[in-house]
TrEMBL record:
The keyword Acyltransferase appears for this protein: no
Protein name as it appears in the record: S8 family peptidase
Alphabetically ordered keywords of this record: Hydrolase, Plasmid, Protease, Serine protease
Catalytic residues, chain numbering: 218 (charge relay system), 266 (charge relay system), 499 (charge relay system)
Domain Peptidase S8/S53: 209-547
Pfam families reported for this sequence: Peptidase_S8
Keyword Transferase: no
Range of residues in the leader sequence: none
InterPro entries linked: Peptidase_S8/S53_dom, Peptidase_S8/S53_dom_sf, Peptidase_S8_His-AS, Peptidase_S8_Ser-AS, Peptidase_S8_subtilisin-like, Peptidase_S8_subtilisin-rel
PANTHER family for the chain: CEREVISIN-RELATED (PTHR43806:SF11), PEPTIDASE S8 (PTHR43806)
Family: Belongs to the peptidase S8 family.
The organism's place on the tree of life at top rank: Bacteria
Length: 558
């Protein structure tokens, strides 16, 4: 009789690691891990002398987090003046930075002391000004250590003790709450219109997205593509303008024009699923277009792939064809983009909506993110998830991709690798509690094929059920980059991933809100309605969430 295998005993080293991870510190677990070399660093940091970081300020600082941030800005400008620098960091002034009301009195000696943390190569990005709670900086290891422990000198604190919340004579007030790593973020139709019943909703309820503005935070949107010309999809109302957050552009016109250039094509593909229309024969026709071409990949008998180009004679339309799209460029290309760009874009949406008092941007699509590590943050509590939840509470629907990490390999007892579905693989910001997190299913046969093998699966690391919904994400046809296309030809292509499933939900909600306007500014109620009206695909909840998006049933339910 074979002896039963004894369960392995946890190693003391692991216990030590867990204990260390729970120690309270003002340097985030992700950044601390990179600085110690325990984790493979994102490209461009870790082995370098400087780290790209996100600084979250202490709200208990005299005057609040805004005052704390202003103090760091002034210290940085003092450093620049001291070394005679005229570099791009002076964009802080060019953006019109001014001290906030309630700024406490801080001595020049204290500012000088704080400015000494900066050294050659230090930088604070001007995009920080689009947020209220953060600064996006490049700092040395020593600067991070000093900044994390810097407190208001006692003599200055005494001057402002009437403005502090703590009021304690012995308690020093730290400048920052936490310093995080500025992660690299990655980009995670005609048959699919029928799959979620958008075609029926257009015909029965005239739910076409009119009067709705939806933001797309991605690689930009190709403003030259004919799909966005037919219904003037990118012409924005109410003084809104597109914006590029991948570079510091003080000139709004330059920043707006740059957001309508998409060198990668991902954002253009995503945008074409949400809105727009291309038609050669049916009215309204697309001007100057004689042919619609669709590129798709086919697998050959020898296992190689080849591209096939077909001509399409019908109409290609987004889920909410008349919805207006706002391009927020946060990825310079398919591989380059910082978390700070996305946080700045979220701040831009909140500011454009006057923090919920006048909602002009009704929703935002996030087909991007980064792998979540519970060692760094509690699930749903990373800076990105916190800002997503805050944006929802200000009245904006936030629809995010679950991620494409739902399938991989495990190691057998023998040591051999074996392929398997992976639970607990939802990416950030899909872990945000108030976001609508979207997984992927088949383009036109979801009941047969169920949830896509690659679609990230729940639950979250703290035990909440995600994703919320699934939508078509396999071989979805939408806009290809127009640059280089032949005259008179509108290019489209196939792409696959939860990046493609997410804009189906964004477009469906935009269509819903255009005819059920009483729910504008109520994103949590909208999520509840869509989730309760989803179609059960008879798959496990951690795979499908509530089920398949169904716009027709959602409209009939209210």
């Amino acid at each position: 009789m074979a002896r039963a295998q004894q369960p392995a005993r946890p190693r003391r080293k692991s216990e030590g690691n867990i204990q260390e991870n729970l120690v309270k510190t003002r340097i985030g677990g992700d950044l601390s891990s990179f600085m110690k070399g325990k984790t493979d660093p994102p490209k461009g940091i870790g082995k370098a002398k400087h780290f790209d970081v996100i600084i979250e300020f202490n709200r208990d600082f005299p005057g609040g987090g805004t005052a704390a941030r202003q103090l760091l800005f002034e210290a940085f400008l003092m450093y620049l003046d001291r070394i005679g620098a005229t570099d791009e960091s002076n964009n802080l002034w060019r953006f019109g930075m001014s001290p906030p009301l309630g700024m406490p009195a801080v001595s020049e000696d204290s500012k000088l002391d704080l400015s000494l943390i900066f050294s050659n190569g230090s930088r604070i990005a001007a995009k920080s000004l689009w947020t209220d709670s953060y600064a996006f900086a490049t700092l040395t290891r020593e600067a991070i250590d000093r900044l994390s422990s810097w407190t208001m000198p006692k003599k200055d604190d005494d001057k402002n003790k009437g403005e502090t919340k703590s009021g304690s004579k012995n308690k020093k007030t730290p400048l920052v709450y936490k310093i995080w790593c500025d992660h690299e973020i990655k980009r995670c139709v005609y048959e699919s219109v029928r799959t979620i019943k958008c075609d029926a909703a257009h015909a029965s309820f005239a739910a076409s997205g009119k009067g709705i503005v939806w933001a797309v935070a991605d690689t930009g949107i190709d403003g030259t593509h004919p799909h966005f010309k037919t219904l003037r999809t990118l012409d924005l109302p109410d003084g809104l303008f597109h914006r590029d957050f991948t570079a510091d552009n003080p000139d709004p016109a330059v920043a707006s024009a740059a957001a309508l250039i998409d060198s990668a094509g991902h954002g253009t593909h995503v945008a074409g699923i949400i809105a727009g229309r291309t038609s050669v024969l049916d009215e309204p026709k697309t001007d100057a277009i004689k042919k619609i071409c669709v590129n798709s990949e086919v697998r050959n008998e020898d296992g190689t792939k080849s591209t096939v180009k077909d001509t399409h004679d019908g109409v290609i339309t987004g889920m909410a064809p008349h919805c207006k799209l706002l391009s927020l460029k946060v990825l310079a290309n398919e591989k380059q983009g910082k978390l700070s760009n996305l946080l700045a874009a979220i701040g831009y949406v909140r500011r454009s909506n006057d923090y919920g008092r006048n909602i002009k941007i009704h929703g935002i699509n996030l087909s991007l993110g980064y792998p979540f590590d519970p060692v760094w943050f509690a699930a749903g509590q990373s800076p990105l998830c916190v800002e997503v939840d805050r944006l929802v509470r200000s009245g904006v629907c936030v629809v995010v991709a679950a991620g494409n990490a739902g399938y991989g390999t495990v190691t057998q007892f023998s040591g051999a690798p074996e392929r398997a579905a992976h639970s607990g693989t939802i990416m950030d910001p899909g872990n945000a509690a108030l976001a609508i997190t979207v997984g992927s299913t088949h383009r036109d046969m979801p009941h047969t094929y169920g949830v896509s093998y690659f679609s990230s699966k729940g639950p979250t690391a703290d035990g909440r059920m995600k994703p919320d919904l699934v939508a078509p994400g396999e071989r979805i046809i939408s806009c290809a980059r127009y640059n280089g296309a032949k005259s008179g030809e509108a290019p489209f292509r196939e792409d696959t991933g939860t990046s493609m499933a997410t804009p189906h939900v964004s477009g469906a909600i935009a269509a819903f809100l255009s005819v059920r306007r009483e729910f504008l500014g109520q994103p949590e109620r909208v999520k509840e309605i869509f989730v309760s009206a989803a179609t059960d695909l008879k798959r496990r909840p951690e795979f499908q969430g509530a089920g398949l998006l169904d716009l027709m049933r959602t409209l009939q339910a209210v």
